[in-house]
Amino acid sequence: MGIVIATVNQKGGVAKTTTVVNLGAALGAIGRTVLLVDLDPQASLSRGLGVPVHELDRTMHEVMLGEVEIGDVILPTGIDGIELAPAEITMTTLERQLSGQVAFDSVLDRALEPVRDRYDYVLIDCRPSLETLEVNALRAADYLIIPILAERYALYGTDQLLEFIYMVRERLKPSLEILGVLLTKVDRRNALTDQVITEVQHYFKEQVFKTQIGINVRLAEVPGAAASIFEYDASSRGARDYQALASEVISRVES
How far apart (Å, rounded) are the C-alpha atoms in residues 68 and 70? Predict the structure, then answer.
C-alpha cells in the first residue's frame, strides 16, 4: 500500500508545491510510482504541470464530494512514474460543503483507499491554511513534511502548526508522524542563514532533514515550464537537492 505524505505549513511561499512536484519526480526517476494530489483550490500544482484546470469536468472537488472516484480524475503528467489528481478553483467551496457531512475529516482518506495499492507514494499538496482540507490531508497521511523558509522569523507560527498537527494526531490519527522539516530557499552565501538553520535545528532537533533546498534560479523558473526540475535542468543545483531529499525520504520510510 502506498505511503501517503502531505506537505503542510500555514505559511505561503515556503515551497510546498515545489517540493511535491520535484520530490515526486525524483522518486519517479529512481523507479517509484507516485500520485500527486492537488488539494489547493489555487491549483498551483496542477497548473504548474501544464493542466488546463478550467477545462476539466472532474477534479478533486468532485472526488471530495463523493460524486466521482479518484481514479476517474487521475491524469498523466508526462513525468516518468508520476500521475496527478488535479484541483481547481471551485474547491474553495469545500469548507462549507464538507462541514455538514458525517466523518467530514476522513473524506480524502476514504477516497484514496481504492488507488493506494497502485502507487509507492502519494504526495499531497496542501494550501497555506489549517482548516478542513488540511485536516483531511493529515488524516489521510502517514507522514508529514514541513517546509520552512531559511529566513528571519522562520519559526514564526510554528507553535500553531504543531498544535494543529498534535490535535489531528490525538483525535484522529495517532500513527501520524512528522517525517521531516525541510529547510527551503537556503541562501548559502548569507550569514543570517546559518543562524536560522541553527534555530530550526534546535527547535526540531533530529526531525530536520539533512538535505536543504538551496535558492536556485532554475527551480524558480520550473512552474512556467509544465515540468519538474529534472526535465527542465537535470544538472542544476535544485535537481541535486531534490535527488538528495528523495534518497533521505526513502531511507526514513523504507528502512
Answer: 6
Q: Which CATH class is domain 3-253?
A: alpha beta
**DSSP secondary-structure letter at 2?**
P
Radius of gyration of the chain (CA): 17
Burial environment of residue 95 by CB neighbours within 10 A (0 to 12, 13 to 18, 19 or more): middle
Domain spans of the chain? 3-253
Question: What gap in Å lies between CA 17 and CA 14, rounded to an integer?
Answer: 9
Mean pLDDT, range 127-150, rounded to an integer = 96
pLDDT in tens, 24-72: 999 999 999 999 999 999 999 999 999 999 999 999 999 999 999 999 9
CA distance 117 to 126: 22
Q: Which one-letter amino acid corresponds to residue 115? A: V
Phi/psi of residue 122, nearest 5 degrees: -120, 120
C-alpha–C-alpha distance, residues 7 and 98, integer Å: 21
DSSP H or E segment with residue 192: helix 191-204
7 Cβ contact list (under 8 Å, min separation 6): 16, 19, 20, 123, 124, 125, 126, 144, 145, 146, 147
How many residues are listed for the chain in this entry?
A: 255
Indicate yes or no: pTM above 0.90. yes
